[in-house]
Each structure stands twice: as structure tokens, then as C-alpha cells.
Design a protein that fits this description.
Helices cover 42% and strands 18% of the residues. By secondary structure, the chain is an alpha/beta fold.
């Protein structure tokens, strides 16, 4: 059997992705070779490894393989939009379906070619739920068609795609030689002008698929990318979560059971579509725990991959252990926070300010301050029976949460925009949603000034619009 070298994973011993379309059927192989091979080279594929062939036309071989890939992809794609059973979500999905299919063709092509694919997902229940849902779709796809994907999964901390991130991704991609450009997939972060430098650095180097649900900030250059997709572009909002979006995307090519990940995503990001009966709550809590402190299930202290998460969720013993530990840690931290939080009273709502450094455990990074802010707001709402505002600060980060009942009164995106104007040199990045957002500072000594200004601006919002 003859084939073509489509990708080389460079290491101490090169690993080759080989493609064949004998009799018109697409096949992929991963092998090592005693010969030094080049991408696009025709080889004979044998059990003992590939060997160069000099008598065949590479162009003709590649055209035959590409035709087989195109036919295979069209046979895989799902024509009817995926349905969750939630009417508003399903209407939005139908509007996006053709764009999703277009992005899916690109994704499947890269998978089948063995081109390097870097998938970055935000380190919370929403981002991780989407990553696991996409992973499940790829696993289900591999039952239908033989693929040897070269995927690198990266858990992303932060809300922007920085120039440094682009440099790191370029370094990863440089570890491969491929007949096509690498693909970068972004899930659940980056839709702000703070990502512009990173995006501009990868343009021309990578093809991209971007699945997000954050409000699109004016001046964000990523919106011009061919496969930048966001429910806001189709008349929806952030309640159509990015994790749900990634699960829906996986259903363009596979019928994996992603329902739990969809629900975990909705719960984790406080979507108004949160299912009844606590569906998704347990998985969401576990995802928050794992992405806060990967050491719990991973050998890495900074990264956890979907296969590790999926294995933990599918082990009833491990799952129970993680969920019980997460609940215990969360309750302990909430109790401590309620005793330490400072209250600033206004007529419309109170502002609760917490120094999260006093809560942080030396043994565990869970819960991270941003997502803890949401939990704290929920607990305070339960106790006070009215809408409130929570501001949590820790090291270089300041997180803000506002109850949905006063999100039109307290303009969190506006507060962040004002801080960026007032303290342009002091703020590294900032962004989020209408009810939840955060700021990252450049220098810790500037935090008191920025924090004071945030509190005063929120008070002004409450006092002016509350009259």
C-alpha cells in the first residue's frame, strides 16, 4: 500500500502520520521509520514501517487522498441542527448551524491530515465542560473513521489570548512539520481587545476556530477571523455558554452523549437555562475543583487534559471523592468569608468586599477567587433575600459579581471600561459578562487605588440609578 507523509511529529525519534486512499477509501497510520522522510513524500506503508517510493507522482497521490477526505467529511457531517430541548437555545443553534458545519469541515480536515491542532480551553466548568464534550465527539468519530490526530490540549488561565500565548503555541507547532498550517481552537475566552496582539501574531501562521460567548468588545480584532463564532452575533447572549457551544460543535460530526457537560457548563456559568433538579451541579462542581487544582487528578500542576477529566468523572469512586471534597472546601471557605467580608451599605443594594488572601488554603487552590465570587454572591443573596454586589480581590486580580436583579443598575462592563481609561498603565487585562467580570493588574501596589475607585464607581451606579 502506498501513501503520503502528511505530518511529522519531531522528537528524539520522528513519528510520521501517513495517509492512503487505496480504492478510494481514506486511511491514516502513525509510524516510525528507519528512513528520514519529508512531508508530501510518497511512501510504501508496511508493517515494519514506511519506506520511500520514487516511482509514484506525489501530486496525483495527494489529489486522490484529498478527494477521499472530502468525501469522508461530507459523509460524516450532520445535516440537522443538534437540539438540546431548550427552545431558545435550539433557535440560536439553528441560526449558527451552517457556520458550525463550515468550521467543522476545517476541523475534520485537520484531524484527518494529522496536522497539529492546539485546543485551548478556559479553566472553569464552562471551558472544561466544552473541552470534554469536544473530546467525546472526537473519540466517537474515531469509531467511524481511522484518524491519528496530533492534538495538544491546553487549559488556559485568564480571559485574554496574549502575545506570549501566541509565542507558546508557535513553539508547539514548530515541533511538527505538516503539509498544512496548524489549527488553533479557542474555547470560552479571549473576546476583548486584550487579545488583539496575540491574534495579530498568529494570523498567517495558524488557521483558527474560536467558540466563545462573552460580549464582543468594540475593537476586538478576533471578530474578523473566518471561524470566530459567538451567540451574540446571532441575537443571543452569554447564557448560551461556551461549553454548551463546544458540545454543540462536536455534534456536527459525532453523536456523543454530551448532555452532562452541557448542563455542567450552564450551571458553572450561571446561565438562565440552568436545568431543573440540580442536573449538572455535581459535574460542574467537580470541573471547578479539577481546573482550580489540576494536581488532584493530573501529574501536571498547571494543565489537565480532557481524557483525565473524563476518566475521573466516569469513576464512581473517584467522582464521589472529588465531589464530597469540593463541597466541604467550598462550605468552609464560604463560612470563613462571611465572617471576614466588609460591607458598604447603600439603599439599593449593599457592596460586599472580600480580601481572598485571608481565605486561601496552603493545601488547596480550590476554590479560585473568581468562581468563588459567584458562590459568595449566591450565598449572600440567600441570606439577605435581595440583590447585592460582591467584589473579591486576591493578588493581582479583582473580581466583580452583581445580582441579575440589578445588573442594569450596576454596569460592570462599564466599570471595567472606566478603570481601563483611568489606570491604563496599571491594568493588564479585564473583561467578562454583564453580571460577572474581572480585572488583572500589572502591579500589586496599585490594587488599593483601583479597588477604591471600583467601589466608588459601583456606589455611584447604585445611588444615581437607584433613585
Amino acid at each position: 500500500m502506498e501513501g503520503i507523509v502528511s505530518c511529522i511529529r519531531h522528537s528524539t525519534s520522528n513519528t510520521y502520520t501517513l495517509l492512503s486512499a487505496e480504492s478510494g477509501k481514506f486511511e491514516a497510520f502513525e509510524m516510525k521509520s528507519d528512513f528520514s522522510l519529508a512531508t508530501g513524500e510518497v511512501v510504501e506503508i508496511k508493517e515494519e514501517g514506511p519506506a520511500p517510493v520514487t516511482t509514484s507522482d506525489p501530486k496525483e497521490k495527494l489529489e486522490k487522498i484529498e478527494k477521499a477526505i472530502d468525501e469522508t467529511i461530507e459523509g460524516i457531517l450532520v445535516g440537522e441542527p443538534y437540539r438540546t430541548g431548550i427552545e431558545e437555545i435550539d433557535r440560536t443553534t439553528s441560526k449558527m448551524w451552517e457556520d458550525l458545519l463550515s468550521a467543522s469541515r476545517l476541523f475534520l480536515r485537520k484531524l484527518m491530515l494529522g496536522a497539529p491542532i492546539i485546543i485551548r480551553f478556559h479553566n472553569d466548568a464552562d471551558g472544561a465542560g466544552g473541552a470534554v464534550g469536544l473530546y467525546m465527539g472526537i473519540a466517537k468519530l474515531s469509531w467511524k473513521v481511522k484518524i491519528k490526530p496530533n492534538i495538544v490540549w491546553l487549559m488556559h488561565r485568564g480571559v485574554t489570548y496574549s502575545e506570549r500565548d501566541s509565542e507558546w503555541d508557535t513553539l508547539i507547532a514548530n515541533g511538527y512539520s505538516s503539509i498544512e498550517k496548524p489549527l488553533l481552537v479557542i474555547i470560552d475566552f479571549g473576546t476583548s481587545t486584550g487579545s488583539n496582539e496575540g491574534i495579530e501574531a498568529i494570523e498567517g501562521r495558524f488557521e483558527t476556530i474560536w467558540l466563545d460567548h462573552h460580549p464582543i468588545e468594540e475593537g476586538f480584532v478576533g471578530a474578523r477571523l473566518p471561524n470566530y463564532m459567538n451567540p451574540w452575533k446571532f441575537g443571543a447572549d452569554s447564557s448560551y455558554t461556551a461549553g454548551l457551544f463546544a458540545c454543540v460543535f462536536s455534534h456536527t460530526f459525532a453523536d456523543a452523549d454530551t448532555k452532562e457537560m452541557e448542563n455542567a457548563s450552564l450551571v458553572g456559568d450561571y446561565s438562565r437555562f440552568v436545568p431543573k433538579g440540580n442536573a449538572g451541579l455535581e459535574a460542574s462542581t467537580i470541573l471547578d475543583l479539577i481546573t482550580s487544582d489540576p494536581r488532584i487528578i493530573s501529574q501536571s500542576s498547571s494543565n489537565v487534559v480532557p481524557s483525565e477529566i473524563d476518566a475521573a468523572l466516569n469513576s464512581s469512586e473517584k467522582r464521589g471523592e472529588l465531589y464530597n471534597y469540593a463541597k466541604m472546601r467550598l462550605e468552609e471557605t464560604l463560612d470563613a468569608a462571611l465572617n471576614s467580608v466588609k460591607t458598604i451599605k447603600t439603599e439599593k443594594a449593599d457592596i460586599f468586599v472580600l480580601d481572598y488572601g485571608e481565605m486561601r488554603s496552603a493545601e488547596s487552590k480550590y476554590p479560585l477567587p473568581g468562581r468563588f465570587s459567584s458562590r459568595l454572591l449566591s450565598r449572600i443573596e440567600e441570606l439577605n433575600k435581595r440583590p447585592e454586589v460582591v467584589i473579591v480581590h486576591f493578588n493581582l486580580f479583582i473580581s466583580m459579581r452583581v445580582s441579575s436583579g440589578i445588573s442594569d443598575v450596576v454596569d460592570i462592563p462599564g466599570v471595567i471600561g472606566k478603570m481601563k481609561e483611568l489606570y491604563a498603565e496599571g491594568i493588564d487585562s479585564g473583561g467578562g459578562h454583564k453580571n460577572a467580570a474581572s480585572i488583572k493588574l500589572n502591579l500589586d501596589q496599585e490594587k488599593k487605588t483601583v479597588l477604591r475607585s471600583i467601589i466608588e464607581t459601583v456606589k455611584e451606579n447604585l445611588e444615581q440609578k437607584g433613585k
